[in-house]
Amino acid sequence: MAQGGISxxxxxxxxxxxxxxxxxALRELQPVAVLIEGPADASPLLPLLAxxxxxxxxxxxxxxxxxxxxxSFWPFAEFxxxxxxxxxxxxxxxxxxxxxxxxxxxxxxxxxxGPTDADAADAEAMEGQGEEASRIQDPIGTLARAAGYExxxxxxxxIIEQNPEPGPIFAAIAxxxxxxxxxxxxxxxxxxxxxxxxxxxxxxxxxxxxxxxAVVCGAWHVPALxxxxxxxxxxALLKGIxxxxxxxxxxxxxxxxxxxxxGYGAGVVAPAGASICGRRVGKTTLRCxxxxxxxxxxxxxxx
Length: 303
Hints:
Blueprint: E1 2-3, E2 6-11, H1 16-29, E3 33-39, E4 58-64, E5 72-76, H2 81-91, E6 95-100, H3 103-110, E7 116-117, H4 118-124, H5 130-137, H6 139-146, H7 152-161, H8 169-181, H9 189-208, E8 213-218, H10 222-226, H11 231-238, E9 246-252, H12 271-280, E10 284-288, E11 298-301
Parallel strand pairs: 2-8, 3-6, 3-8, 5-7
Antiparallel strand pairs: 1-2, 4-5, 4-9, 10-11
Helix pairs in contact: 1-2, 1-12, 5-6, 6-7, 9-11
């Protein structure tokens, strides 16, 4: 998990168990900066998530100035690890930044067009790339099938979200994703650009800050962000990328729109149950969170 003063936390987007484990890890690590997977040009807005007036769920909306209908959105709920990481960073006066491709790039035609959630757009960009694309779009499902589960929801729920004694969870996730990505050839241009941009942002932060950094990203990305890549090579991947003048804001969101059944690519099974767990993050140790394959929710006090 840790590498050269940088700790990588591979999370499940909107996973309450991931959120609880992440907050505990941040408390122990005390990083000077928290770097989160998300559009880098929206970093100035990120601390607003900690405002008392900001009541989740909310969504970061990014759209071209001349075409508001072409909107991408990044939802945040109480049970989102990224949201909890932002709260921790602001409360502990750590630097807080997004590190993924700027929305100006996404909205300039480098990713699928139209109003959509960012996760679904990323998956659409992989279509037609065969087995490799399947592993990228559903890495948890691949691990689940290898473990004898019928679906990734049940595997993640049992092993990660509901495990009362998960142990070194982030190191285990990183190892699993490293194994899954061994021998990969191509991940597609857009995904390669995203990971190159995140590596460059991490490298820049490493030079800027004197202290430990925490990187919070989707579990799939951890091996690629830890792997050795030259700065020149990453910069070459991003050379000539289009940009479009964009506008950004936070907007109210709703629990149902965070549900898998609603069609949200990174959704949860039961947003209401997950929200209850989200309010307990930092106060209890979660035992099961009703987010991936279970609708039950219980917790025990942290000691």
